[in-house]
Q: What sequence folds into this?
């Protein structure tokens, strides 16, 4: 898929997060491309279970879950890479860091893996795909537990106990959305205690979210915004006011 195709598909998903349904003709005019081009984009999104199509319209799929990595891999990729590069600048070679699960955190892991001068830092993660991506690092620690089949995230009672007994200089945390919430959220309840522990045991908590996360939210806030030290994201027309409100709450906002 071309970069332009990626951009259109990301923009289509942002529209659907806001409107839930949009016409093919409306999308064609919006992006100044033919309806045939839009249909190709929609076919790809439908194949990934992100949308469904019916009678000239696209609808947000009932299956779409912002916590599910299967639906988010490849989405907003450019934003995630920019966020990861900016987050990398916060890491000191003597740090111990926590890496949450999720596709934006995975991009940070890929960035870390390309910087061998940081290979002696201590990394702890409950993301199996994240641990596997860190092949250049001598030590990557993981908690005990069960691997969730689609998110590749480790969870369980022993997982929560593991995070209760550690300390980290900095934690990089993801979220499935922050729209109209008291803090970052998730939709998978079995990860709630683990996320809360990651926040509690870290000197600094950095939230990494792409711009689409301002348009959605999960069921469970895992901390209050007051517990977030830094937010790294990408500013868009849709999230500009929200970013300003977060700054007013005392959160350091870094734009990638």
A:
């Amino acid at each position: 898929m071309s970069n332009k195709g990626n951009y259109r598909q990301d923009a289509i998903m942002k529209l659907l997060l806001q409107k839930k349904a949009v016409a093919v003709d409306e999308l064609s005019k919006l992006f100044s491309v033919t309806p045939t081009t839009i249909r190709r984009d929609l076919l790809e999104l439908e194949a990934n279970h992100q949308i469904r199509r019916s009678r000239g319209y696209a609808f947000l799929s009932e299956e779409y879950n912002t916590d599910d990595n299967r639906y988010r891999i490849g989405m907003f990729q450019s934003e995630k890479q920019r966020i990861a590069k900016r987050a990398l600048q916060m890491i000191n070679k003597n740090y111990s860091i926590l890496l949450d699960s999720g596709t934006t955190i995975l991009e940070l892991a890929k960035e870390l893996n390309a910087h061998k001068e940081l290979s002696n830092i201590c990394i702890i993660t409950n993301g199996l795909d994240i641990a596997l991506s860190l092949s250049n690092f001598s030590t990557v620690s993981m908690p005990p537990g069960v691997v969730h089949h689609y998110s590749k995230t480790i969870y369980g009672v022993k997982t929560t106990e593991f995070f209760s007994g550690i300390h980290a200089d900095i934690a990089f945390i993801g979220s499935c959305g922050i729209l109209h919430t008291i803090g970052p959220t998730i939709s998978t309840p079995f990860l709630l205690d683990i996320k809360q522990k990651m926040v509690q045991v870290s000197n600094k908590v950095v939230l990494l979210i792409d711009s689409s996360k301002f348009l959605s939210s999960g069921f469970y806030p895992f901390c209050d915004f007051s517990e977030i030290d830094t937010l790294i994201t990408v500013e868009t027309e849709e999230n500009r006011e929200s970013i300003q409100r977060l700054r007013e709450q005392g959160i350091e906002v870094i734009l990638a």
